[in-house]
Amino acid sequence: MTIEPLVRMTSISKSFGGIAALENVDFQLLPGTVHALMGENGAGKSTLMKILAGVVQPDDGMIRKAGRTVQFASPREALNAGISTVFQEHSLLANLSIAENMYLGKEPLTVLGSVDVARMERNARETLRGLGLNLDPATLVGNLTIAERQFVEIARGISANADVIILDEPSAALNAADVEILNAQILSLKQQDKAVVYISHRMEEIFKICDTITVLKDGRNVDTVPVATIAPKRLIAMMVGRELAELFPPKPARTESEIVLSIEGLRLTPDSPPCSIHLRRGEIVALAGLEGQGQRELVRSLVGQHAAHEGRVRIGSRELALPLPEDHGIRMLQALGVGFVPEDRKLEGLFLDLSLAHNLTIGLHSRHFELTPAGSDRDVIANSIRNLSIKAATPSTPVGTLSGGNQQKVLLGRYLALGADILLIEEPTRGVDVGAKAEIYKLLRAYTNAGGAAIVLSRETLELIGLCDRLYVIHDKHVVAEMPAGQATEHAILEAALHR
Amino acid sequence: MSKVGRIFFPANSRHGLWTIPLLVAICCCVGLAISTADFVSRQNVLNLFAQAAPLILVSIGQMIVILVKGLDLSVGSVVSLTTGILSLNAPFYVTVPAAMLNAAVVGLLNGVAVTRFRVHPIIATLSIMGITQGAAMFVRPSAGGTVASEIVALVSGELFGIYMPVIWTIAAILVGWKIVHGSRFGLHLFAIGGGETAATFGIAEQRNEVAAYVLSSCFAAAAGIFLAGRIASGDPNIGTQYAVDSITAVALGGTQLAGGIGSLHGTLIGCGLLALIANGMNLLNVSAFVQTIVKGAILLLVIALQPRKNIGL
C-alpha cells in the first residue's frame, strides 16, 4: 500500500528576470516524515519552499495538497491551507513582543474587538514551554539573543497548527544543546503525522533526524533517496556534482614562527579570571566552546566593538590597552594590519546595494584622505575576482544579489586586498554551501601559508577542528583550555568546556 | 538598571520615552503656577484645553502615520480647507460630510502616492499639501463667512456641565486609543513600522498604510471642524502651524519618526507640553515670533535626543 502524499509538487518552474531558478522540479512530502531538501546555495531550495509557502508564485507546474490542486497567492493562503514556514532570514519584528510576533496576522480578539493579549500570551507560553523555553511571552523580541529569536521563530511555525512545516536553516544560529531541543521537537511533529521539510547545511543533523533527502542542483532534481541508503560522502558528491576530495585543505607542518598578536591579562568582565592568547605567523587559531560563552566578545573587544574590562594587546611592536574606543577601534586595528570580518555580512559586513567592485575596494579607499581622487583599482578588482573565484556577471553587480558563498568571498577579499597581516573572522562560512565552504577554507589556508595569520570563531566545531591549527576553548568568559587541532575532537572540546 | 531607571528608559516597551516629557510637563505646570498668577485660573485652564484639543486631534492622526514610517505634512492644509468648506453657505449636514469626504480623498491620495507610486512621504504629502492649500484659498480666499450655528454650539459652551473642548479631547483620546492600542489594526501599524518583514506575517502593508493616511486626514478634518466652530467662520491660513506643531508634539511624546515605536499617551503628553509651553509664553508676554523660534528648536532638540537604540531597532 502506498501512502497518499500530503504535498505533491509537479514540474514546478520559476525564473527571475530570465534566469531559471527552478526547472521542472518535482517534490513529494509524505505525512510523518522529515524530508531534507539539500543543494548548494542557489540550487533552488529556498525558491521551491517559497513557492510552497505562497511567498513566490510559480511560472509553471502544479501543487496538490492532500489530493486537491491549490494555488497560493500569499503566505496567508498557504498558512490557511496548513503550510507553515520558518524562514531563513530573521523575520521577527523587534518592536513586538514574543506573543505578538507568534500570533501576528491571526491575533485572537476579545468580544470588544481588541487583541486578546492575555489569551495570546497564555498560548505562546505553552508553545514555548513545549520547546523547553522559559521566556516571558510579553518580552519584546528586540531584547532576545539570536538563538532565542530563532526559537521564537520556530515556535511561531509550530503554533500555526499546520500539517506541513518548512524549516529553512533553523539551526544555523543554535548551539549544540539547543539543536538537541529542536531535534526532539521535530521528532514529536513527525509522530503527530505531520510532514517537516528541513533545509540545512549541517550534515550531522540531516543524518540524525531526516528520513528522506531530495537533492537539487542548479534548479533541477538530482535525486530523492531514503537517508538510510546514502553515505555523507555520496550526498556531498550529489550536491556539488563531483566528489569532494577533501573539504579542508592540508595543514602545513608546524614551525615555531614569531608571535604576531598576543593578548595578555584579558578580563572580559570584572569577575572573570585573566587569560592570554597568542597567534603566530602562518597560524589559524580557533576560539571554540559552547555558544555565548564569550568567544564573540573576545574577538570584538580586540576591535573596540565590545568593552572588555581590561587587558593588553600586542600587535607586532605596538601595545594597546583594552578596552579600545568603540568608534575608531576598527580603524586603529586596520592601520596595524588587522582586518575584522564580522559574522553578519548582510548587516555589518557588506553594502548590499553597492557593487561587488565597490565592496572589494572600499577598504582601500578608507585608507586614503577623504578628498583624494578615488582610483578605479581595476587590477585589484580583477585579481580578487579571479583569485577568489567569485561568481558574478560583472564587477558592477550589486553584492546583495550574489549567493551567500560569493558574498562571503567578497567580504574576505576586501581584507585580503588591503594586505592585512592578521584576520579576525567570525563565522567564516555561515549560511554558505558545501562547495563554497571548501573554497573559503582553501583561501584562508593559502592566506596563512603566504604569511598571514587568523583567529576564527565558529559555531561548527567540526569546522574549527578541520580548518585550524590550534584551538582555545572558551567558557564563562575566559580561556579554559588550549589544544592543538590534531588532538581536538568535538568530545574533547565539550569536556574542556564543561568539566572545569 | 535601577528600578527608577527602568521607569524612565523602559527597555521592554515600544511606547518610547514618554516619562521624561511627562516630568517636564509637570515641572512646567508647577513653575507657571508659581511664577504667574493667571495660570491656575479657571479661564486659563479652559483656554489650555481649547488650544490643545485641535492639536491633539491632528497629532493622533499624525502619530498613526508616523508609526508606519510615514509623515503627513498636509494636515495643516486639510484643517484650513475644512474650515473653508464649513463656512460655505450650507447646512451642517451638507458641509460636515463634505468636509470629511474631502479629507478622506486627500488621505487616499497621500496613501496611494506613498505606497503605490513609492513617493517619499515628505514629498508626497508636501505636494498634496500644496494642492489642498490651493483649494482652501480657492474656497475661501480670506478669512470670513459664517459657520452653521449647530457647529458653533458643538464646540463652545457646556454639555452636562462639562466644557465642550474637554469632551472633544476625551472623545479623541477614546477613538485614538481604540485605534492605536486596542485593535488588530493598531498592532499591525506597529508591525509595519517595526521592520521590512511584516508582509511575511500575512499583513497587507499597503492597505494598512493607506488607511493610516486616510485616518490622519480625517483627524485633521475633525480638528478643522472644531476650529471652524471656535471662530464661527472659515480661514485659509488657520491650519498653517499644524503640520510642524503636530510632528513636534508626536516626537516630544517619545514616538520615533522612523516608525514602530510610540504611544497615544506619549502623544497626549507631547501635545499637553507643547500647549503648556505656548500658554506659558503667552502668560509671560513672549513675542509670537520668539515662540515660533522656540518651537522649532524644541523639534530639533527632541529628535536629536532620541536615539533609536532602545529595544534593538
What does this structure look like?
The complex is a heterodimer of chains A (500) and B (313). Chain A has two domains: 7-240, 3-Layer(aba) Sandwich (Rossmann fold); 259-498, 3-Layer(aba) Sandwich (Rossmann fold), CATH 3.40.50.300. In chain A, 33% of the residues lie in helices and 24% in strands. Chain A has helices at residues 45-52, 75-80, 98-103, 117-130, 146-159, 176-191, 203-209, 232-240, 295-302, 329-335, 345-349, 356-366, 378-387, 404-417, 434-449, 461-467, 490-498; strands at 7-16, 19-29, 34-38, 60-65, 68-70, 83-86, 164-168, 195-199, 212-217, 220-226, 259-267, 275-280, 284-288, 310-315, 318-322, 338-341, 422-426, 453-457, 470-475, 478-484. Chain A has a six-stranded mixed β-sheet with strand order 6-7-8-3-9-10, sandwiched between helices. In chain A, strands 16-17-18-13-19-20 form a six-stranded mixed β-sheet, sandwiched between helices. In chain A, helix 12 runs parallel beside helix 14 (404-417) and helix 14 (404-417) runs parallel beside helix 15 (434-449). The radius of gyration of chain A is 24 Å and the shape is globular. By secondary structure, chain B is mainly α. Chain B has a single domain, classed as ABC transporter involved in vitamin B12 uptake, BtuC (Orthogonal Bundle). Chain B has a two-stranded antiparallel sheet with strand order 1-2. In chain B, a hairpin with a 2-residue loop joins strand 1 (158-159) and strand 2 (162-163). In chain B, 50% of the residues are buried. The mean pLDDT of chain B is 88. The chains are: A alpha/beta (500), B mainly alpha (313).
